[in-house]
Each structure stands twice: as structure tokens, then as C-alpha cells.
Amino acid sequence: xGGEAVTRVPFGFGRRTPVVTRLPGLLLLLFLCLLSTAPxxxxxxxxxxxGRVAGDESADEIHPKDRKSLDDVIPFNLKPYRVRVxxxxxxxxRGRSVNAATVRRELRRALHRMYGRLWELDLGKSDWLIPGxxxxxxxxxxxxxxxxxxxxxxxxxxxxxxxxKTMLVAVxxxxxxxxxxxxxxxxxxxxxxxxxxxxxxxxxxxASESARLIRDSFRSYLKFLRxxxxxxGVAFMELQVQGGEIVVPxxxxxxxxxxxxxxxxxxxxxxxDGARLRQLRSLPFTYIRVLSIDREVRRGVATGAVLMHGPVxxxxxxxxSLEQVALCQRPTADSSVVKLIQRSAEERPLVSQRVxxxxxxxxxxxxxxxxxxxxxxxxxxxxxxxxxxxPTVWMxxxxxxxxxxxxxxxxxxxxxxxxxxxxxSIRLSVEGDLQLFRDQLVDAVALREVHFSLARQAADEGRxxxxxxxxxxxxxxxxxxxxxxxxxLIRVEAVNRAVEERNLPAQRAVERLxxxxxxxxxxxxxxxxxxxxxxxxxxxxxxxxxxxxxxADEG
Amino acid sequence: xxxxxxxxxxxxxxxxxxxxxxxxAQEELTxxxxxxxxxxxxxxxxxxAERFDWVVLKESSRVLVxxxxxxxxxxxxxxxxxxxxxxxxxxxxxDESRRLSEVKLLKISLLGDPDEYQLKMEDVENxxxxxxxxxxRIDLLLDADETTKAFDLLQxxxxxxxxxxxxxxxxxxxxxxxxxxxxRDGSPVAAMALLEQxxxxxxxxxxxxxxxxxxxxxLISQAIDNGEYREARWLLRRxxxxxxxYPMVGQVTQRLRSLAAAEVSRAVELSRNGSRRxxxxxxxxxxxxxxxxxxxxxxxxEVMALHQVVRVAVPTLDDKSSFPVPLRPELRHRELVSxxxxxxxxxxEITHYRSAFIxxxxxxxxxxxxxxxxxxxxxxxxxxxxxxxxxxxxxxAVRLNPDSDNFDPRLASFVAGYSVRSPSSIEIRxxxxxxxxAAMFRFPVHLRDMESGGEVAALAGRFDLVEATDxxxxxxxxxxxxxxxxxxxxxxAEILEQKYESRHLExxxxxxxxxxxxxxxxxxxxxxxxxxxxxxxxQFAAPxxxxxxxxPHREAVQNPQLRRALSxxxxxxxxxxxxxxxxxxxxxxxxSSAAWPQASYASSPLVEDPKFDLRxxxxxxxxxxxxxxxxxxxxxxxxxxxxxxxAGEDWxxxxxxxxxxxxxxxxxxxxxxxxxxxxxxxxxVMQEAAEKxxxxxxxxxxxxxxxxxxxxxxxxxxxxxxxxxxxxxEPLLDLWPVLLTDHSLDVSLLAGYPDWMRQDLTGLxxxxxxxxxxxxxxxxxxxxxxxxxxxxxxxVEQFIAFRHGIxxxxxxxxxxxxxxxxxxxxx
Lengths: 555, 827
What we know:
The complex is a heterodimer of chains A (555) and B (827). Chain A is of the alpha+beta class and 555 residues long. In chain A, 31% of the residues lie in helices and 27% in strands. Chain A has helices spanning 25-37, 54-60, 64-73, 100-115, 134-138, 206-217, 425-460, 464-476, 480-500, 504-524, 527-544, and strands spanning 81-90, 92-93, 96-97, 119-124, 146-147, 155-156, 165-173, 178-186, 191-192, 196-200, 221-229, 235-241, 261-269, 277-282, 287-294, 301-307, 322-328, 335-342, 354-359, 369-375, 381-385, 393-399, 402-409, 416-421. In chain A, the strands form 6 sheets. In chain A, strands 1, 4, 7, 8, 9 and 10 form a 6-stranded mixed sheet that branches. A 6-stranded antiparallel barrel of chain A has the order 11-12-16-15-13-17. Chain A starts with 24 loop residues before the first helix and ends in an 11-residue tail after the last helix. Chain B has 27 helices and 30 strands. Mean pLDDT of chain B is 88; it is low at 1-27. In chain B, helix 4 (130-143) packs antiparallel against helix 5, helix 11 (276-289) packs antiparallel against helix 12 (294-306) and helix 20 runs antiparallel to helix 24. Chain B starts with 9 loop residues before the first strand and ends with a strand. Helix content of chain B is 42%, strand content 19%. A 6-stranded mixed sheet of chain B has the order 23-27-22-26-24-25, with helices on both faces. Chains A and B meet through helix 7 of A and helix 15, helix 21, helix 26 and helix 27 of B.
């Protein structure tokens, strides 16, 4: 490396600030070419505990600015992942401490056997997560890893110039065996995966179980290529998986499989410094379901269907300095808990909300399984089960007669999710009011018919007094004006509330509902019906000799 | 009818009444003599015949049988006397002269002859009235001990001549004979009653005191020997009231008095030896032997004060486990054996709460945090133990644990966390501010089973169940009051619930003083018992609301039209007046439009009382039935549509429906509303009301079968409706469990409700202010009334009676054992 020796500052408790020197560009290019073409078996693991494979060490010695140029040079589909694996061991094995060096060595070997050249592995122990217990990792929050709130002194434990993925592994010896936990942190999307756990009763199984957990926790990273529609107008998306051209030695560690679910992100890069992330946007409840993977010509190119809750999704749009990426995330649990909350008052969960799970790929596709009806619990929680062959489902969320939202969801990927829904309470309460109003209307109409029928019977039998009585009862039944006033009251109260809360959609919905009811009133109390009924009543009265002026009907 | 012995002709001057001339001999008839007449008349003839009299003529004592004469009885004597009186007047008035001429003639009608005749009184020797014949027969019957027939005749005689002095001695003799017969037949009480009646009529009746004494003496002795002192006293009282000087009265009185004094002495001795419970029992019995006075009385009172027992008359001890909600026996039991952290203190428009364990609960951080400062000491009369913050935390943990049987999802949705600050202080943090903090913590603290994590027994109860049989439940104070207090500082130590087979026996026991408390007075009994001045009759602070709830799991009652039809067909006011209250003025009850009291803050003034409208109910029932037919009709339409399309024909559904209306009607003719099952509270009055409701539903054509609970192991789920009573302390929190008959607060049970109703119900938990909560409850009340999610019926005031001697109870109790730890029993 000549006089431009690469030095690296060991991990400290605070920020990780690597100091590197520039490497001549030509030499670097040559080195990388060698690296990418070298057989997987050539990457033998180093012997030292904290050591790295030779290639890793070389990679670590690249200056960030050179890394940028490297990114430009090495195609994405040939680019290996820089993976930092941090393993901590706590507790003792029946009184004897576990040999951490042995575990790490075996783990390195196992990971190498799995991923080969796809991973530039940096395996060691964490310098900040001390002692690195299972509980610590389980409770880890994203803000423990990256926190940009303090602009002057942001917390960045793993800069993306150095590492793509971090695997945090903890092994805890218990009286029965060894508890292992692993969480993956994707540096570029700043996304912390849910924990995966395993247990082995034998110390000899620690490395292999840890390797398995790491493999399962690893989330492939993909870049958006294009969006297109087929002849029938169905939209598809193509994405390239990182290092897709690199064949992994272990087929179980394959980066992508059909039916995998991708979670999209948008990375808005700085316009002045293309390597600096300006803004990161995750797109919740937008998924890309992998339908096919090219394993021959364009290796690592996945074609998928995009599932989104809105009419359009920003993912796939054009933009300067915009990186559109996705993580392939597989389920970690057999269900997910989705919390439904109301947008207007975020603290309020939507309790007893009706949700139907619809099993189909896209919104317009045919359903492939019978629907499932759910109701949110007292905390607004819904447990969405993971179903075989259906990595994604659609949640149809209803509010009264209104379909409030259709949201795609991939159960099991995240243990807990939150769906924020618009405030439909005003419209829903008007729906209730109108239901009661309709009941009253139907009652009135039914009673009118009953009294009219009795009046007719009385007239047929010549019972003038009874006829008079029935006509009086008939006249007591609320008339159209009374109903119109009630309806107006319902509308005015609801509209005022909507205006007060500046809820324009609710206001429109209320107007629409009330208008519909007014039309029903017009049908029930049409002029034609009124005139016909008056004529009938006059006829009945004439039949028993009552004066026609004593009309009972007005509506 | 009476017949003449023969057609005997005699000379008689007879003038028909229609001919106003003096009596002249015009016809000759043959009449029997008095000796020829058959006497006495038979019982049957006397019972069946119309009254007649014999007129005995001076002429050979011939007898004319005539229709009943006036005046009577003693017709001849009274007419003769009047005539003599008039004749003795020297200067008679015109009327007197006219009357004299009248009484000199006897107007008669022969049996079967419509004509009226007149006889000169001077020709009449005597007139024998029908009543005399009756007396003759009665005497004969009494001589023959045929008391039943004699009684019948006496009754008839009394109807003819009320309170006739001639009948009185015969009736007295009848009573005596009847009493003798009852005594002989082994019915001494009946005999005694008759003798008492005889005494009331004729105190000087010969041999009465001996008869009464002879009858009662062995009974009294036997009762004393059997320890039935109350009965002995009762018999003795009856004897002494009539015959205070009867020798046995004094003897027995002295014997009972001595016995009572001896028992009191024994009780005092037992008490001194520390056997307070036994001593109290003995002292109580001593009071039954003979009313005590003076020193003995005060000794007895002192012994009983040290161990006071309250006796409560109850109709049942069986909770009828198949009833899905706890009934009165279970509620009483819970009230004694467990004390919630907070309990209602007073009820008016809103309910106020108190806590036996928590001294202070001050909200902080705008209500998001509350610190419970637990009591570290309490008055000596409080029987429940003090709780530590750790125990409260444990109880809270159980209720917040979703895996626990006692998980309270509502509480869990409010509580964000809690921490024990000290042994007597626990801080609770809320994720949302509860509107009524105390109402949410109305749960008892239980012991935890360390293995299962569940709760096994109330850690803090006021009383413990120490003995239970089919007829009794005995509860003892959880923490006895300390020894060495003054007798009047002690409170009730034991509660004995005694079951009685009938309402009559309960009230009788209360009247006799066998029980001290009558907890569930019927509305019509309250005033009567209050007027009897046996004790205090108190009205509960809140009425009971009677409602019909629907089973949320049953498809049959999901139809709102059906529910509304059921509601509209109940004649609430009629049932309330005639069955529930038995009072046309409805003094202690009213028709209700909600499941909570009308006085509650949650009652909307705009919601009218439910209507009774059978016509509308019928229309709604018809609509509900039509809705059942819709799927079948739709299926037929779909098949016809498919066939039409297959055949390439045009399809217009309305046309097809019009053309095939008859076919559609026939295809769905058999579809009827299913029979419904209504579970009913076992209270007999409520059962009667339920039967009346079922009768009215039957008029609509709805088949509602009434089911009464039994003592099955598991609550029944096989019901569509349930007629029950509820008492909501806090409608905001209590509505849900009542509406859905569910204490798990499972929101999935709301699945059958429309979304707007669900939103209103769940929104109750999120009410940020009292005003908002009240408005939501108003809205819910309106919705419930309109869509009959629950059928409110009526609310009925409840009463409890305490005999004199019980004190320390609250003037407006909230429940049967409200403040029971402070009750005092004074003998």
C-alpha cells in the first residue's frame, strides 16, 4: 500500500470516525477487479480473533471518497455487501466460560461457507454494546444506532461509507444451554430488523445456530430498475439485487426467492455530494412482491408486483439524486399486530373496527382464498396471521357502509405496525342518525298503512265512528314536514361539527348522505301518492256518509 | 214445596183481595188441625223450601199454611201487642185508627194461590213462623251431634233473621260441640280457635274455662318439655287472655320465668369462660323462654352484645348457576367476603365512591398519574385487613395480564404502568386519563395462586363464610373485634342467612322476631311493614332496573325489526301496575327508557318512555319475517337469471319478480321467525311478569319460551333473551357488561352491532370530560331505545326492613349489607 498506509481507528464508545488515506485510483481498480473475480474459496478466514479476511482488510482501507468512486465503478450486481458481524457472549457454560475466540472463528467459517464472496465480512465484538446481552439486543431501538436529532453531534454508529449491514448477535449461556439472538441493521435504509432467536443446548452448536440466525436475518438490498406495464395494462417493477451476479456457495443463503416481499425506501441524496444521504423516506404499506427472478441472463433481476394503499406510489418515480431501493424482508413471526389509530387524535385507537382480510395479489386480481373477518380489539389491535402461499394480504377497513381503506399488508415481517386512518366519526354518527331516522320513517309509513287498512275495513262494513277514529289515528302519524325538520337537524349539527373540526371530507359525506335520505323522503311522500291517498280517503268517507272536508291526510 | 195433608174442607170466610169488601164466608175448605201437621220439618225441606208460616185458627186448631207473613219472626205476638197498644189509646189519630183496623185483620196468601185473603185476628189462635221450625230442627241436629247440618241451618236462619236472639245460644252450643270434636280429632289449634270464638260470644258459657284449660294445658307442657318456648308462650298467652285466673296460667308463667333466668345465668357463666358465641346463643334462647326484665334483662343484653348475630331472611341461597349473571345470593355473598378497592358511597345523579383501603388518591400530571396512599391503620370495627402496596400491585398485575382469567382489557388500555413507592404507596400511570378513576378500580384484591398465577380467594373480605347448609349460610367477621371493649362498642359478629320456603314464612319470621332483617321487600309490602311498626323500612339509594338483554352470540336476535317488535309489544305500564308493583298509582316504580335509573346523570331528558303499540309491533314482526325470506328469494332470482341468460332471453328482474310473485310467496311460505328462548330471573314476581310478556308476544305470533335457571355447573348459553334486573352504579363503565352479558369486555361481541353503535359504545372509554361522556350516554340511550339493543322495562324502588333492635345501618343503603360491619344488634 506504499506510503499511503491505511489506518483504522478502533471502535470507541462514541462515534466511529475512520481515518483513511487516499489510495491511488489505478491500484484500487486493479485490486477490486482481482477481488471480484477471485474464487470464493480463495477467501479463507483469518486466524486472529478480531481479524478479517484479507479482502476485508483491503476493503477497509479505502477512503470514503474512493468508496464513492468505487461504487461508480463496480456494477451494483457485482458489488458485495460489507457486513459487520458483532458477537457478544455472556454467562458461563456450567461454570466454564465459553471460548469466544473459538465461537467467532467457527462463525466466520460458517458465514464464509454460506456467502462466499457476496459478503465482505468484518466479524468482531461490539465496542459500544456492552456487555451485549440478549435483552439489550432485543430492546434495541433505531435511535440507539443512528440519531440525527442533534445536528451538531449526530450519533452514527455505522456510517454507510464503511458498512452496508451490521449483524448484532448475542449469545447468553443459561443453565439449560445457550440462548442466541440476532438482529440485522441495514445501514443504508437505517432500518433495524426484528430479532430472531435460537437456542442450542450444546456449546458446539453456537456457531452454526448463530450463522443460521444471521442468514435468516439478512435482508437483501435491491435497487429499482424500471416500472412497466404488460399488454393487459398490469404494472410490474424490476429491481436489481445487490451482488446478484455473485453466486452464493450455500443455496439456502440465496438472496431472493419467488414470493419474497420487498419493502421500498427512497433515498434522497445530496445534490452537491452524491454520496451523502439528505433524506430517507420509507414507504409504509407499500410492498413489492417478487414474482420472478432472472437467474441466467440478468442475474439478480427481480420482477415484482407493486402493492400500494393509494392510487399511486412515489416509488419508481424519476428524480435527481434519488435512489430507490428495497429490502427483501422475510417473516420473523407467524403473525403481526396492526394497530389502527385515528388521524385526528393519534392517541385514540380505533376500537372494534371491522376489517376484512382479502387474499389476492393486486387490488384488481381475483381472490385466491376465502375472506377473513376481523375486529380490532380494545387497543385498536388486529392480529394478522401469516398464511401459507399468501405473503401479502389486503386489509379492507370498513366504517359503517363506507370502505375506509384498502391496505396491502405483509404479515410476520414486522411484529407491530400502525395504520393511521382518517377520522370518520362524524360521517359514521350521521349514518347512525339516519338509520334511526329511517326506522322512524318506516314505522310511520307502516302505521299509516295499518290505519288506512283498518279505515277501509271500517268503511266496507259501514262503521262510520270506527272510520273516523282510524282517520284520526292516521292523522296523528308524523307527516313529511316533521321528517324534513328532523333530517335538517341531523345535517346541520353534523355539518357544523365538521366545519368546526375542519373536516371537509366528512362535511361532504354528510351532505351526500342527507341528500340521499331527502330523495327517499321525496319518494315516500310524493305528490302523486298524496293525491291518490286523499282521493281514497274521500271515497271511504263518502261511503259511510262522512263529510269529505274532514281530511286526515296531509302528506 | 209444602203440601196440605189432605183436601179437607172447612168453613172459611175468605174475601179475595181484589174485592174490597169485608171478610165473608164464601167458600168452604177442609183444613187440617195442628195435631195433623207433621213436625218438626225435615232438614232438606227447611233448607230448600221457600219460607211459609202456619196460621192456627181458634176453630178446632185448624192450620192454614200461608206464605211468609210480616212482621216476623214472632208474628202473632208482635201483631197482638200492637193491637193492644193501639186499642189502649183513647183518642187515636186517623193513622192510628187506620192501623188498628189493619192489625185486626191478618192478610194472608195461600201457597200456590195468587189471591190475597184476610182473617180476623180474633179468629187466630197462633202463628208459627218458619224460623221456629228451623230452631226445632237445629236443636235436634245439635242433640245428634250433626254439627255440619246444624251450622248450615243456622247460617240460613241468620240470613233470614240476622242476629236473632233465639239463634245465638244454639250457635254457641254449635261452637262448643265443634271445638270438642276438633279436640277429639287431634286438632287442638282449631278447637282452641273455636273456643276463643265462643268465649268472645259468650264468656259465661258453661264449662268453657275448663274446656279451654283442658285443651291447652297438655299442649303447653309438651311445648316446654320440647324446648318450644315460643309456642308455649303463645299458647299460654291465648289461655291467659281469656282466663287469666285459670290455675295453670300462674304456674306455667312462673316456670317459664325461672327457666329464662336460669338460662341467662348459664349464658353469663359461658361468657365469662370465653364462650361468647355459645353464650350469645343461650341468652337469645332465654329471651324466647320468657320476656326478661330488670337485672336479668341487662345481663342478657350484655352477653348478647359481646357476640352479636344478625339473622337475615332470604328466599333462596342457591345462586342458580345456570343463570349467566350473578343473582342475589351470589351478590350478597360477594359483598360479605370481598371488599373492592373502591366501592360506591352514595348515589344520586352521580355515584360517589369511597375506599376502605386507600386513604388518599391524588391525581397528578393532569390526571395521568395517581398515587394511592394506603391506610396504615383503621378503626377497630373494620373487619377487613389492611393491604400493602405490594398486594395492590399484585392484584393490578393480574388484571393487566392478558393471560389471566381476571384480565381487564379496559383497565389495561388505561394503565401505562405502576410502581410501588413504599409499603403503603403505589403510583399508577395512565396512558389515557380515566374519567372516573374510582369506578375503574372497583375490584377486590385476591390472593394469588403461585402455581397457576390465578386468583384464589379474596384477600380482603369483611366476613368469611364459615358454615353453609341447604337452609343456612353463616358468616363470621373476618377480624373479630378486640376483647375488653365496653359492650355497647361491639358490632355484629356473625350474619346468619336463613332460607324460608315461602314469602309468607319470611314475613312471619320477621313478625315473630326470628329474623332481624328482611332484605327484599316487595313494593306493596313496604308500606304495610312500615305501618306495622315492627322496625324500620328503608329505601335503597338506587332502584333496580328491569331489562331484557339479548344474547350477542345468537343469530336469531340480531334482527333489529324483531327486537323492536318485541319491545313495542310489551305493555309496560300494565305489567308494572298489576304485577310488579301491584299499585295503580305506581308509587314505587316507573316505566324506564334506559338500563340505568332515571335520576342518573346518564338519563337523557329527550328520550321518551317506550311505547306499547301492538299494531306497529305486528308490522315490524312481519318485516323481520320478510327479511328472513330474502336469501331464498335472491337465490331463486339468481337461478332464474342464470337460466334466462343460458337461454339467451332478455332479463328484467322486476318483470320476472312480478310474474313470479306467487311462486316466490309459496317458496318462502314456510320460513317463519324461529322460536325464541328467554331466560328469566327466578324471582316469582318477575316470572309472572315474563309470562305476561310472553302472552303479548304470542299475540303477535312470536313463540317465546320461558326458561328458568337451575343449579347447573356452568352458565347456560342456550338463550336468546334474558329478563334480568340490573343496578348500574356507573353507566359509563357498567353499560357494556350489561348490554353484552359479558365481563371480559371482549369487543368482538359487538360484531352484531352496526358500526355507529359500536363507535358510540367504545367511545365511552375515550370521553375526555364528564360533559362528553354524558352526551355519549344520551346518544346511546336514544340508540338503544330506537333499535332495541336492549329492552328497558321499568325501574322499581327496593326496600329493606330492619327490626327494632338493629341499628348502625345507613339511611339509604346501596345494597343489603351496606356498612354491615357497623351494624349493632340490641336484643
